[in-house]
Fold this sequence. Notes:
By secondary structure, this protein is an all-alpha fold.
Amino acid sequence: xxxxxIKNYFVSLKxxxxxxxxxxxxxxxxxxxxxxxxxxxxxxxxxDVVEIVGAVEVDFDSMWTYIVSAVRALDWSNxxxxxxxxxxxxxxxxxxxxxxxxxxxxKTAVEAQIAEAVSVxxxxxxxxxxxxxxxxxxxxxxxxxxxxxxxxxNIAKRGIWKFVLMTLADAVLSAALIVITAWLAAMWxxxxxxxxxxxxxxxxxxxxxxxxxxxxxxKVPFKQVVNFKNLFKLLLTNVIVFSIAFIxxxxxxxxxxxxxxxxxxxxxxxxxxxxxLNAESYVKAIAVEAAEANEEVDKKVAA
Length: 303
């Protein structure tokens, strides 16, 4: 089982560009909404600032230089934190007010209007950010399920009715385990660790039971599939597969953090898919071996 599970992972890596492509598509679609929202919001903010200062003569070149200097003063060694600061209402309001105070000799009294304009700007940016996050998640989830469908066809194909029944059974089991774990944790904090271990064992055992009824029923003995030895092997196999995926991701991140995380998501997603199918792959394989062995016996008897 262990050798087969690891082989399943490496063979399935040929589909690594499927979740990557879907994730990238989601990001591109999200950016196609987010970037125009940011540009439109910033343009509207600039127009509002021009309207607020009204008849007051302002050197907008100096104003722009002041804002650029404020942006450059941020710690760009951490780009995400710097961008988060730029798009906070307090930083934008303080920067614009400080700029106008300097240009108008400290005589401006437009703080409230500037704050309102900034708030409107950030609302538009937030809507774009939500759209970006939604499309990115849709791309990630869609890529995961499409990749799982492709991999399942190769290592553990099953009929549509079995798929529906097992999906419902998985949902019921997951809900029950969540409720029981939460209840135990509320009753006794130390039980959270105990229930976590028990959950891992129960999920593994249920995976073997499910695999037996999907691929092994009336083909191999129940005890040949569901036993402590196979449970241990299944858990060990899954730990090894996840370890391989995380090691690959860490190596990629060491070379390039952004690209490493992006690509590592695909490797980890495939690890989740394969570990969820390893029990079925094993049972399907021994069922085929049992059928071939019976066929050979039948041929010898007939001869």
